[in-house]
Amino acid sequence: ESELQSLVFWQMGSLAHARWNDVAAVAPVFLVGLLALWRLATPLDMLALGERQARHIGLDVPRTRLLLVVFSALLVGAAVAFAGSIGFVGLVVPHLVRMLAGPGHRWLLPLSGVTGALLIVVADTAARTLDPPSEIPLGLFSAALGAPFFLWLVLHRRGRGAA
């Protein structure tokens, strides 16, 4: 029964079973991935212009795409192994930060990481304190926050595109 509950919480996302040993095991992977993506901030800005334009200004587009996929997968894999799948954080936070800080990836990447971490801490605190002694799975809580925002974002962009 304990293992089933652990599996369910991992599938829905939880920090309840996180230990400092787990943090120490995942930290090097995060550091490598974060540094690599931060170094790819300028190529990401170039890709935002479009593949053709990025190629014209000297970017090796296939190599850059491969590096982005590899390091993004590394970070996502480490995060999911640590806390389970916590939906909507990766969808909502970068869009929110882009609306507030602008499109430059040199700031967008670290601010998205900090804002996402802050959202997870706030959501985890709320998930643990709203219905004591039980805990709401973090993925359900973040989806309850993220789904309405993402819906608003889609409708807002659709309305702006139609105008």
Characterize the structure shown:
With 163 residues, the protein is mostly helical. The chain is built from 8 helices and no strands. It has helices spanning 2-12, 20-39, 41-48, 51-56, 61-83, 89-101, 105-129, 138-162. The radius of gyration is 18 Å and the shape is globular. The model has no long low-confidence stretch (mean pLDDT 85).
Structure summarized in a few sentences:
This protein has 163 residues and is mostly helical. It has helices at 2-12, 20-39, 41-48, 51-56, 61-83, 89-101, 105-129, 138-162. The radius of gyration is 18 Å and the shape is globular.
Fill in the keyword field for this structure.
163 residues; mainly alpha
